[in-house]
């Protein structure tokens, strides 16, 4: 399955020594250290992956004790682990060893850099509204057009409960509840999907990066 394969590709880097620090220089050193660590998993088919390797990677990440997420874009054949890079107001910017970044506020995607079709800025719901799984919100996304001119796209979005589901994040199973956000502007429609764990955190999500691309899969591995 594509999602399973994407998750495996996201494990291509074993992450240790990631500093959760607002200092960019220190964070950059940590990210370089990540990149030097040999890959535990090659980009192989799902059936070739040894579950023991997944368990070993999780143990290493948890022992390190720093937050870690994985980010994947199937349409762009991109997947990577990310570490905290620097705080941005009340959000956190996460970075891969290649310095692609995503900025998340309580797990909700705010912006991205380094992916090509980036989300420059956005305005939308807070985690409380998403978690409630009801009501509506007006969303604003900002992109750059071919002339590097900001273009704003507005959507009306509705929230609905998607029921209880189990999700697997790096060899660990979580009982979650799914919240589906359906956004529309005329014939243009898409969904953002959020899986909340028992602690009320977004453990996994699929969120729009830009029009014409598959949703970005974000999984929180270590809190």
Automatic annotation (TrEMBL):
Q: Which residues form a coiled coil?
A: none
Q: Which InterPro entries match?
A: GfcB, YmcC_sf
Which Pfam families does the entry link to? Answer: YjbF
Question: Which PROSITE patterns would you find in this protein's record?
Answer: PROKAR_LIPOPROTEIN
Q: Which Gene3D superfamilies match?
A: YmcC-like
Superkingdom of this entry's organism? Answer: Bacteria
Put simply, this protein is called Group 4 capsule polysaccharide lipoprotein gfcB, YjbF
